[in-house]
Request: fold
Amino acid sequence: MAEAPIKIDAAACKGCGKCVKGCGFGALSMIDSPGANKIGKIAVVDASACKACSACVTACPFKAISEVKQKVYGTANLESYTDIWVFAEQHGGVVADVAFELLAKAQELKAQRGGGAKVCAVLLGSGLPAAAEQALVASGADVVYKVDDPNLADYEANVYVDAVAQLVEKHKPEVILAGATAVGRAFFARVAVKVRTGLTADCTMLKVEETKNKDTGALQMLLHQTRPAFGGNIMATIMTPNHRPQMATVRPKVFKKGVPDPSRTGTVLAEALKLIAPQTKLVKTERDPDAVDIAAYDVLVSGGRGLKGAENFKLLARLAELLGGEVSCSRACVDAGWCPATRQVGQTGKTVAPKLYLCFGISGAIQHLEGIRGADTIVAVNIDPHAPIFGVADLGIVGDALEIIPALIKELEK
Amino acid sequence: MRVVVCIKQVPDTTNVRINPKTNTLMREGVESIVNPFDEYALEEALRLKDAHGARVTVISMGPPQATAVLREALARGADDAFLVSSRAFGGADTLATSYTLSQAIKKACGGKTPDLVLFGKQAIDGDTAQVGPGVSEFLDVPLVTYVKKLEVADGRFTVESLMDDGTAVIEGALPAVMTVVKEASTPRFASLAGWMDAVKAPVTVLDEKAVEANPLWIGLTGSPTKVVTIFPPPTKGGGEKVDARGDASAGARAISDFLAKKGLVKHG
Reply:
């Protein structure tokens, strides 16, 4: 049992309970102690719940609580955190692909870590179908923590934060992964702050390895979280040595999902939590009729600045049709108003991993290349023989995109 | 109504490179700019000033040079500016930054939580999108992200929030923390008169004592995440290259043959 970050002087405690009210983490409680003072109660601290915020030190009118100088600022009882969790984002009861990709990675991390860690999926919603939990088990969840609550019917960041934070406090996972989607990114950042730990966004590589803690010298199994920074100009490996859980988000399509095994068995635990009410009201959602999930296609035909205008994207659409794919674009085309942002590939657009990425008039800024790192085959056409896109292309054609596109359409129509 | 906009000075990331020998960032000659997404947040705040007479406060955390982005915001129409700056804040990750900014926001607003705190959806240097949500937790107010349309009336808000496959319309009561996307608006330019005033306007500097920060929760000490190594992104060598300048059909044939060889052409 690690030492709590605060110390209560039992002789000075008058049993008033003001510290219990002052604590935002439920770390303090009053226990019976007849004769200790007039009220007959004294305060005790739960070391694992205390976040060292010192609110109780201020709240106590009798100066009975003091801060213990900690050698290292961090989570108490690090060793009590074991499992590897995946947030299973779902829409209408259907689990998002990114959750399956993360489960496959979580199974690798579990093998690297050893020590009896389990892979657990966190499934939140209302009226969740059994198919959702079965799919999670088949794809690698040893345990599914399911919270089925009317307050979770719509995605509402603030209730979702409350639910995940409560589960973390209760079950103490060592690692939590979530998809860096519009949903995952927003509420996960708040979960990390609520449980007072670190979060690394948009990781592209994850592994667990025995690592020496620079502060304590102890050998620990730590999550090595690698991500692009500065617009993809550098890669940084980040660790969270003294806080738990170690949290990371990963963009869809960065990791590959495994083949589901319907015969796999796992435990589904229904969790009844007392949740806060939603803080905002979802009035309606409007699907963008032009919204297309470019990440879902095996073939992407992509256009850049070299297409010179919105009208030339019609040619790309024909080419995409011939190849059984969809049209995507670079950031320049979105900024120019030629294409909607939903079709943008790259660091500020979507990460894609198609079998074929065929691009025209895209020079290949590092932010764009970051978004197509998972593509199996890249074919690039660009007028500039020194364009960086040729450094990653399996086949590079130096030439005018606007001449080659119609010629290729003709060739494929043969 | 009091609106706080948090803005960040960032290096223009299109020009940042890594020194391959030392594995450190080469910042020399890299221009500093206002994080582009923060300009949309500021524009939303200024629209609330135009429509409802909101008082707009801008806050930036960073070195003394970051005063430049605050002056730019003042020139566009912000009412007051605070620079959160101290060596003690150095090395802060998103948790420590969220804590420090939330303390500074309360300090700048006389100990109260403002009606609205706006952020850009993310900063282009770190791309984490974590500080806005983090501040909402420290201020203990509702969070709404990816806002592309914002309306406020009688202490309540209605927003359109950009989701992966469309738009969500969300209502709620102020106070709130929101992050704003570029689809929201076109930021206004500063007027010459605005610049004249901004040059003379005071920028209040807040250090760790001024924001009454817990020393354990700021800077490197207060940061759970540690950057262990940085390295250049992996590169893949380019493959075959065909020069088809002046002969588009040769280029098209090369692609068609390559796709056929790889089995990537849809038949029938």
User: Anything to note?
Assistant: Chain A has a mean pLDDT of 91.
